[in-house]
Task: structure prediction
Amino acid sequence: MTTISPEDKRLVSLDLFRGLTMALMILVNNQGNWNAVFPVFRHAAWNGWLGADTVFPFFLFAVGASIHVSLSALLAAGTPRRALIVKVARRTAVLIALGLFLNLFPSFDFGTFRIPGVLQRIGLCYCFASIIYLYAGERARLFITMAIIAGYGVLLLWVTPEGFGQGSLEPCCNLPGFIDRALFPGHTYEHAPVPGFDPEGLVSTVPAIASTMIGACAAQMLRVSAADTTGRWFLPGSGLLLAAAGAALGLIIPINKNLWTPSYVLFMGGLALTVLSAAHYICDVKGFRLPAVPFLVLGRNALPAYLLSSLAGKAMISFHFPDQGTPVTVKSFIFTHAFAPWFTPSAASLVYAAAFLLFWWVIMYILYRKRIFISL
Result:
């Protein structure tokens, strides 16, 4: 991780985009009552998408955009590619290690802990997208990105555990799930649609690299459009076209976050580009930055915001204390006494998550005021 001066030449829109995504991520991951959640904060059970399904691809899109911003500046300053690869490898190792630590916390049961995870996927996507960015030209990056998407689609549709044939997209029988069960027996996500499947598994991380590369290409277009009035229309137009292409492809291979299908990559990449282009116009072109400040606080420190809030969330459901003679989790006690009596179940769940978000926003604001910025 690196500490960055707030006066560096960052795209404010990118920090805003990342902050919006981080705020939604914390809300999605920390609902007060999982039996009463508004649809926008839920994941689709399998095919299709709901509001929560936008979070992870948006964040990987932001990682890709950051790759362009940081690596292009370092290359322009004359930093050798070999030195950059060392930095990328070090950062990748840190992200994966933090992800494994998060999965181990608080029980540290090495016999059953989950090996794949969000930070592990971010680390791998960051690593491979950085390598592609450093050693491939602009056209080659686009070609590689599309080749990843197309190749993964072929893998899903025509490769089975037994060889070539009719692939399956069902929870029980898809190739990514089969490979995850073989590689990580007893170490996959406990709340997956079927035992042994992992939504952040190894095979489905491959198309997630394409999601990251779409972000890198988008950031490059942002730099060009900042000085080109006509080019500004290219950004939202490209986003809408990409989303439309994903929706159309979804008629053949459904939009599915768990499998990270090609239609999901294109559709979410298009939505992310559209949102980023709007943030770019408001913040970087028109200079309206004050309304963005609350989200910049989270965007500048996305990694500690995610890691610390996740650790706290796990601690609150792992540690118990007596409540009228009955052991209850810290989260249950707080939710039951401070939120549930005052709102409807779904509203109480959301207000709890909002209060949790506000707490961590205050912590990140302290870092923001002290000019401490930890980037991915």
